[in-house]
Amino acid sequence: MGDPKKNRKKYTTPRHPWQRVRIEVEKELLQEYGLKNKKDLWKTSSKLAIFKKQAKSLIGEKELQAETEKKLFLEKLEKLKLLPDASTVDSVLDLSLKDILERRLQTIVIRKGFAKTMSQSRQFITHGHILVNDKKIDAPSYLVSALEENTITFNEKSALADPEHPERKIKELEVKEEEKKEEGEEVAKE
After folding, report:
1. What is the number of other CB atoms lying within 10 angstroms of the CB of residue 28?
2. pTM, whole model, 2 decimals?
């Protein structure tokens, strides 16, 4: 049968564990994007480092194979909506950690209004309430492509699929109350 595949970490930890500035920045990102722990953040930063390393190696190449690799690499990043159309390999070096964190499923679910908080968004995803392109994705760190972004819905078997569900109804009531306040302010101005 042979030995099983050796599991390896998919991230690198910081070189120095106690740097005040880095720790404070990581803490802010953890709160802003509702990450479970710093390991999620390190995985994302490692993915960014891989993208940048690949871009650096492709910038210096001039061969035909390198040109096709550049084209495929840029298409991949454009599909993930990390880069605008007709970008160059140099623009990959301008990517930041926040650019990748904005493309996570957890972040997109809350931006689309399916959840009220980041932790609730994470819970909906891990419990199987969210479908992407009619497939159940239970990883909050899943990077959503531009094509898949419009296909995010609630699972039909989930209780949250019902528009009368209390978690969804509260959101609609808040929107209606805000509209009433805006109408009242407009009437008061007149």
Report:
1. 10
2. 0.83
